[in-house]
Amino acid sequence: MAKDFDVVVIGAGPGGYVAAVRAAQLGKSVACIEKWKNPKGELALGGTCLNVGCIPSKALLASSEEFEKVSHHLADHGITVEGAKIDLAKMLARKEGIVTKMTKGIEFLFRKNKITWLKGHGKFVSKGDAGYQIEVSGEGEAETVTARNVIIATGSKARHLPFAKVDGTLVADNEGALSFDSVPKKLAVIGAGVIGLELGSVWRRLGADVTVLEALPEFLGACDVGVAKEAAKIFKKQGLDIHLSVKIGSVTTSDKGVSIQYADKDGNAQTLDADRLIVSVGRVPNTDNLGLENIGLGVTERGFIEVDDHCRTKLPNVYAIGDVVRGPMLAHKAEDEGVLVAEVIDGQKPHIDYNCIPWVIYTSPEIAWVGKTEQQLKAEGREIKAGQFPFSVNGRALGINAAEGFVKVIADAKTDEVLGVHIIGPNASDLIAEAAVAMEFKAASEDIARICHPHPSLSEVMREAALAADKRAINM
């Protein structure tokens, strides 16, 4: 096996494997280092996203949504179902089957593109005239390879709390919360962010009584304020009990479950007893034990690697992408950066507009946005106009019994350029792509409004919101 490569990627998550594939497409000799092992002890590609993140969580979200439909919503369609039951083991097996199919798919892509998978942990050893020496260890005898270019794509891990030891059973992070062996009667979640809301929603739909404790005073502070208010109202109606401005004191476990001591927003001492606890308080970059000090590369106080707009570190031919660098910790952001770096190495001049990267929360209804919020634009002193249109009067939304939420289009008051689009509603993750395309092309709200959208479809709500920005919505 070759010991020197044009490009070595450390990490085979969405950023890393995409970077490897694109570099190979461009004719480079490529190796990718990955040490992840699945629950069976087998080495697997795909990183956190495919193994214990995006893919398995969406599988469980879909399964739990189907159960909720059968249990509570099919009667609206004139369909009566009695005695619906959950086979949790089969549900989890379905999830694992999807994960395996996806990770094996990346193995196929590696073979197709002649990418060498170096199995183990990658660590910088030194820099020489021929490039960077990287040790790969953990699977058999350690070996050292040389890379003319290195892409660090090691992703992130769940942030843990010092007073809440994660054991994966009673106290779980995102990984353990995807594999509970039974539906908890009472589930506590610390953190009302994306992961906390998604996983809390899964287990609520399957029958858990869910309480979410959030330290911040605002709910979904990153969202447009109108979307956040709508989401809080809908989630409360669904049964998620969300408490804001909470200060956690201690977490103790026993044979009976988990007990959380906390102070509420008024400073009053409270106790929450639950069968299980999910800790979802953000993520931290995986930059430890990479041997960065051996090549003179440091990290920030928060563990991130500093890079420029093209993901270059301060060292020549060393790049970093995805969760280990600035910007949102999103799989598709990492993918775009992977492509960008491969093309930079090839001598091309690619570009990413980070303002056009969409965000999604896969609750029900889904929440998605791209660009800036109304509160951000007003804080900048930007003159804006906004159009909002509800799903409640859309024929397709009514037909599929998913008529909650709205689309909001924000544009510059003078030029009409679209500055942000915010959606809470059915299929928001798909609908937001139109907004991202519009913003990439610097479209005006009038451009969206003039495009013929199919009828009946959810996409018509996007068009109506764009029309509403000019106060000429047709169906309101």
Short structural description:
Disulfide bonds join 49-54. With 476 residues, the protein is of the alpha/beta class.
Overall description:
Helices cover 31% and strands 25% of the residues. The strands form 5 sheets. Strands 1, 2, 3, 4, 5, 6 and 17 form a 7-stranded mixed beta sheet that branches. Strands 8-15-9-10-11 form a 5-stranded parallel beta sheet. Strands 18-19-22-21-20 form a 5-stranded antiparallel beta sheet, with helices on both faces. It starts with a strand and ends in a 7-residue tail after the last helix. It has helices spanning 14-25, 47-52, 54-73, 88-112, 174-177, 194-205, 225-238, 331-345, 374-379, 395-399, 428-440, 445-450, 459-469, and strands at 4-10, 30-34, 116-119, 121-128, 131-137, 143-152, 156-158, 171-172, 186-190, 209-213, 241-243, 247-254, 257-263, 269-274, 276-279, 283-285, 318-320, 359-361, 366-371, 384-390, 406-412, 418-425. By secondary structure, the protein is an alpha/beta fold. It is built from 13 helices and 22 strands. The protein is globular. It has 3 domains: 4-158 and 284-352, 3-Layer(bba) Sandwich (FAD/NAD(P)-binding domain), CATH 3.50.50.60; 171-281, FAD/NAD(P)-binding domain (3-Layer(bba) Sandwich), CATH 3.50.50; 356-469, Enolase-like, domain 1.
